[in-house]
């Protein structure tokens, strides 16, 4: 979208506001730029309707608001005044209006997320140049997905030498590996992107090639590729006490090698090792069989009888595409998942919305903020167990039940004539127990197709020409696709990681990986895990990219502390780690994903929630904003 000059912007403003503005975003932007908070009346306060902020006003009032905002903004732009800074007071007044409840803890996070101009509040405000020049110090980053990339950028900004080790031939992580048909983000792209690296996303929910190109582009701008060893898998990491350094054992085309770094950041994600189901006969299937993250684009699917195991976030994106080509599709659905109605899921932004993002100062920032606000402070409450409520697998609180009713109503309206699909679409677990999927109706339409059948009966075994379910039915198949997810709870596997005193990380963790803030583990000095245990966001608002940005800020704070103190090692205190994790477990047990007995990748084999972050995202901001040396042992 081209950026227009000031006079042209003034001339075109009203036209684009009428054609492309979202009312809550427009009101917030106008109040911010003009300082006229009287615009933000209680009657105009937006509500959250199916995951989006909306002002429920009559058409006449809507017209009046659009015209009023356009006039005020024309005045602001014509005067050529600078964009007012986003002070705490400005953010607080506007966010409190939008969310309608006390939002104070959320405001500093918003301030960082709404990067105006070239400011980058999360850029480290220090440089290694201050540190004694004779001290050897470099960082090894393992993994070049979204978290490894932001860690690399921040280290470079602080002048800390690093090498990034990436097993693939290119950066991008999960967005490089997942290339199945229909793959796209299911978090709005204007939030699923780095705060300081905005992009003009043409669609609300960017498709895989665009997301990959974006990540690689940002990395390229910061010289990350030049410092990356591609095709290089880290097999083992060992803390060398005498040298106060990590020895990384690497394997690439040239064989094995050892590299030493004083600190290591594991940025390998939670969702990169495909999980194949342990079903008897799996290796016997004669036709093409592959996992969604290892899509076989050469496999013949056109006109074929295709079986799909799984109905998670990946499967609900690729099944509609496969069903368009296949002769028949059988979907083996063990459990089902709630759907969040999202009409714009496959839509491009109107040209006028893109114009406003590019030309109306702060509009893009308020749009991003609105995405955070709509979920941030409130939705967690609605998926939390109320001890006074007769909780069941139907609902765990009154507001959880109301949420169920609204989602169920939306589904039922589309299958009134197909009661056979109720069982496949209406979960028997509370909203929030499993990951909520987005749908614009295309998933439900796919399940309604004549060539698709949903099978709820359990699979007994896989045979050369299909599957046999426990009711004895033989499902003849030409191809089999596993949409069966990832080995999420097996953090940092298959690497061998040995810490202080020869402690093996996987033996130490067993089935229960834990870390302080998801980032640091006692006995593993100078080691950081990004997207580590209990850092997965569900209904918190934001995206994993936001979490990675906060984690990277914290890690840089830790490294600064280490260097400033001229200490050799830094390691989280056991008591701090234990107290934090006790709170994590207690809080997770109250959330729908911990309370419900339904299966999900949020839990380990013992039913403990190992993946999800239980607190608000504002709390993660507070806890990671400042590195607290008192919580660590510096040696
Ligand atoms: P998933 O959510 O873990 O879903 C796996 C599916 O396979 C579930 O339906 C599961 O059934 C089924 N399954 C697993 N083992 C089975 C077995 N032995 N027999 C029968 N069914 C079995 O995996 P995913 O869909 O790949 O998604 C994983 C995560 O990746 C998502 O939750 C999301 O965080 C991320 N993701 C994001 C996007 C996006 O942003 N667009 C897209 C894809 C994935 P049960 O439910 O009964 O266990």
TrEMBL record:
Q: Which GO terms describe its molecular function?
A: flavin adenine dinucleotide binding; N,N-dimethylaniline monooxygenase activity; NADP binding
Lineage: superkingdom = Bacteria
Q: What Pfam families has UniProt attached to this entry?
A: FMO-like
- Record keywords, A-Z: FAD, Flavoprotein, Oxidoreductase
Task: Please give the name of this protein.
Answer: NAD(P)/FAD-dependent oxidoreductase
Which organism does this record belong to?
Answer: Roseicella frigidaeris
